[in-house]
Amino acid sequence: MRKLLAGALALVVLAALCGYGFWTLQRPEGHYLSDLRIELALNQGIPGEHGNLLGVEPLLFPGDYQNLTRLHRKLAAYLEQARAQGLITPRTVVVLPEHIGTWLWARGEKNELYQVTHRREAWQWLELSNPLHYGLAALATRSDDWRSDAHLRMKAAQMASDYQQLFGGLAREFGVTLVAGSIILPAPYVENGVLRTGNGPLFNSSLVFAGDGSVLGQPQHQQYPDSETRRYVHDGRQYPLQVLQTPAGRLGVLVGSDSWYPANYQQLASQSVQLIANPAFLSGRQSWQTPWRGNRHQPAARDLPLQRGQVSEEAAWQQLVPSTNQGTRNMSVFLRGQFWELAGDGQGFASQSGTLLIGTASHGARLLNLWL
Fold this sequence. Notes:
Layout: H1 2-25, E1 39-44, E2 52-57, E3 59-60, H2 68-84, E4 92-95, H3 111-115, H4 119-129, H5 131-139, H6 146-154, H7 156-174, E5 177-179, E6 183-186, E7 189-191, E8 194-196, E9 202-209, E10 215-221, E11 243-246, E12 249-253, H8 262-269, E13 275-280, E14 282-283, H9 313-319, E15 329-334, E16 336-339, E17 342-345, E18 349-352, E19 355-358, E20 366-371
Parallel strand pairs: 1-20, 2-4, 3-16, 4-5, 12-13, 13-15
Antiparallel strand pairs: 2-20, 5-9, 6-9, 7-8, 9-10, 11-12, 14-17, 15-18, 16-17, 18-19
Helix pairs in contact: 2-7, 5-6
């Protein structure tokens, strides 16, 4: 009798494990409607042969990341509208916002992940749906925030492939140089034109694609990670800032709050930079007008001309762009939208030879154009 009961119990456990394994493989997709409208919030200068900096501030939500087709459709619709307005040329440099690639960790998951209202609930669905990958990634974490590290590390190879396929494809489709915002990956590098991931710490990095879809240079790591990601994102100061030759001029990329630090501009200026792209992300609904948070965890922040809470987020981001870079054009763009309870805020802006250029405010998707 005992053997019979033990055998029956083993069969029940085996059936439950097989059922759970089968459930984790199911990825049905629901219907999704997306708002493809975008407003031209800034259009400065006169069209000419030198090209333009075109900032795109998309309005994104978790459902946009369920598959690459949805995300491509939305971003391509924005660029198509820019092209219809004459803002796309072979010398156009498109700038996308920080972390637009990081949210690719949500690609290809169960419908429930996109339907919950809090990130912690989404994380639970991610972990339950990928138990083996999550467990192995958790064992390989190198950060204080091991859970966030594991979520990104477990999907890293897929994220890197999706990132290059999506943004390299958009650059090729529209024939533009494209600064593909940023993505958090473990020790990313480019080998034989392919973005790959390593086994090292996580970096918040940006990649630039040429008009034929190929990669320019190596991933540009964020030098000074901000307060919200510092517990799992490693600083990239051992990897110097690079300046890339594009049809519109010599381009440098400052990821997120790297645009605050004078040393970064000095490093780019020493390489004769002409264009600076600043993909940015500011969390919190209506936080653009709240007191500036600064970054008390970065020793370099103590030397900044502003102190935490002294001015608003808007004033700080705009004032910390140097006014002495004669002939240099800067473009800062922010990620908009709602990722569970986390909202993206901020209003992008441009700077030309020290002159600040601010477009009309909007809660929706925005285009910012600066003719060179």
